[in-house]
Every structure is written in structure tokens, then in C-alpha cells.
């Protein structure tokens, strides 16, 4: 297993990543600075052109999603603001061939949530003989090992794998340890703070099997949205992200994995070489390897997986640096395959637009701003930025208005929309900073885990 992983990723690591990142930074820097040497009218042409192309793509994506899962489901309407009624796949009654499922959790210093996690998993309504839980204690230095020892006699299907803290591979290494010992046809990857409903597997397994999907990602719902403005903004962001993902998929593009709440077919995962131990974001990397394998990935709006949002600016900064680095790494590592005929033209177009908006625009805008200050000229890319933020507001509005199970989404009133749009500006700091760091400094792989406090959100059966 591990030799396969090393073979898959070897071409994209080390100095090659640094060189590709440096080229990316230089290209965006030149593109951001160049309009300032044109006259006032022509200087806006690049920005307006990109605004029309990328803005049109973004708007179509944001408007494309339906009001429910964009897959065969039979749902009951919601009345008087009550929680969404249970959504079940069409002909669920005829689905009787339940596959073996392994629930896999990589846990490091998770004493605040590990007992609750097992309580939720123990309550799952799924054939007991076909459901196994694997928790990898990845060198915990708190009470996690003791708690797992106490929990093991209470849950017969719980298996605990111990790893040394410096064993290597980060979260991917922990997941690979469970992959090597488990045998289920499907693997459900959860974070230690992940919360799912009692009937969650009963609902998503038929969708995965009957829809012939190789991977199913559940929408992430924030349990602590009411803690402060930062967690409120993240709750809106998760809805925004899920809406965009479904819109991309419905337009012939690509849906991506988000780590917590991802259901994977074992045979496809093994064909891809397992989890990549040379990346800081195993989920984003695996999204592209599934894509290049020809495997189909989808995202479900309901039911969601519940998780905690980070509660401080410092924690957000650390988390988003890791997400940005992993997101860039995968484009650089798999670029030859992404631009080849292994993908459809719609998928290549979707990935190109997504890359330009998510990664190139922040770096380009930063270079535009710096050049504007140095040359004392007006920023040239403001039309593109205005369009991007405006379309984001549309996506926020549509996402937060959708019928949603789990924690209530923030209402998309004008103040909430302004908060969400302002919150997105943090990417215009994170992406340029991470790009520069990746281009200039050697990478040391570490598991920069998110601390979980154990905020409770009652999952209804």
C-alpha cells in the first residue's frame, strides 16, 4: 500500500513543487502589475474580460443547484420552519444488499470528543455484523488512549490502532494504517468531532450504490455557529461551498472531497494508492486522484455531517494556510493529467475557472495592489474583484435559504451577507502568503490538527 502511495506522488514533491509555485507567483505578479503600464482605459481590459468570463461561470454555477439534493430522492416538504423531513433514496425499500462498511477516524489528542463520537457511532442503525469502527490513536499525549481503552469493551465493533506520534505521514499515514487492516467494501472517513444521525448510513449507502458513485461527500454543517461572528461566517461558508460544489457537478464539472464525512469505495481508493502521505490535505489530493482514475464523486446536501468551526482568528489562520497549501499542491502535482484528455472538456474548463478564482485571483490582486501603491496608480483589477464578491453574495444567499437538516443555517439578511463577503477576503491574504512561502521555503510535513472542544449538537434520528 505505502509503496503505491510513494510511487503516485513522487513526481510532485520537494523542489519541483517549489519551482512550480515560484513560476505561479511570478506569472500572477506580472499579470497583476502589467496593466499599470497601459493607459487608463486599456488598463481595465484584462480585468473586465476576466470578470465576464469568470463571473459568468461563477453565476451559472451558483444558480444551477436545485433546492434539494440533485440526485434521485423522495422528500417531504418542510412546514412552518421545522427541520427537514427525512430524505430517502427512491426505492429504498427495495435496497437490501447492504455492503460492509468501515468507519475510520484518525485521532490525535481528542479527549474532548472521542467518547461522544463512539456514542454516535454505536447508535447507527446499520446491520451490526457489517459495520466496523477503526480509530487510529496517532500518538495522542492527552487522555485519548485511556478513554479508548475504557470504550473498547462497550463497543464490540471498535478496533483501536496505536501509532507513535513521530511515525510519519500525518493524518494520511493514520488513515493508511486503518486501510491496511480493514476489509469493508466502503470506508466512511470521519473527523473525531464529526457527528452523524442514527440513520445516516441507511440513507447514504443506497445513494452511493444505486447511483454508482465511487465517493460521496456530505455537506459540512457547523455546530457552534452561534459562538461568535467568526463561527457564524464559517457556517455560511460551508453552505456556500456545498452549493458551489453541486453547481459545478451539475454543469459537468468536478465535485471535491472535504475530509470529514466522505464515503469512499475501497477498490477505487486502493487503485489510487491509498491516502497520499506527502500532502497536507489528504481529501483535496484524493479528489484529484479519484478524478484521474475516472471515479465519480458527488456531494449530498442532506444529510450533513456536523462539525465544529474554529473559534479564533489565529486558529482560522493556521487552518486556512494548510487548506491553501494543499489546494495548490494538488494542482501542481497532477497538472499533466488535469489538462489531458483523461478529463472531459467541461471538467477541464471547470477546473481552470476554479483555479483562477480560488488561487490566481488573490495573488494577482495582491500584486495589483502593491503595484498600485508603488506607481501611485489606480488598482486595475477592481472590476473582477467586485464581480467575484458579488457572485459570492448570491451563493451565500441561495445556500443559506436552502432546506437543510442539522444545525440551522444563519438567515441571509443584508448584515449576514455583508459579514460573509467580508469574511471571504481572508483568502486574499492567505493565498498570497502561502504561495510565497511555498515558493521560497522548503516544506516540512506536519499534522497541524484543529483543536476540538466538544460543542454539542443533538443529532436527530
What features would you describe in this structure?
It is a single chain. By secondary structure, this protein is an alpha/beta fold. The chain has a single domain (1-461), classed as Spore Coat Polysaccharide Biosynthesis Protein SpsA, Chain A, CATH 3.90.550. 49% of the residues lie in helices and 11% in strands. The chain contains 16 helices and 9 strands. A 7-stranded mixed sheet has the order 5-4-3-6-8-7-9, with helices on both faces. A two-stranded antiparallel sheet has the order 1-2. Strand 4, helix 5 and strand 5 form a beta-alpha-beta unit. The chain is globular. The two termini are 37 Å apart. The relative contact order is 0.18. Residues 1-12 and 70-90 have low confidence and may be disordered.
Descriptive terms for the model:
globular, alpha/beta, 7-stranded mixed β-sheet, two-stranded antiparallel ribbon, 49% helix, 9 strands, 16 helices, 461 residues, Spore Coat Polysaccharide Biosynthesis Protein SpsA, Chain A
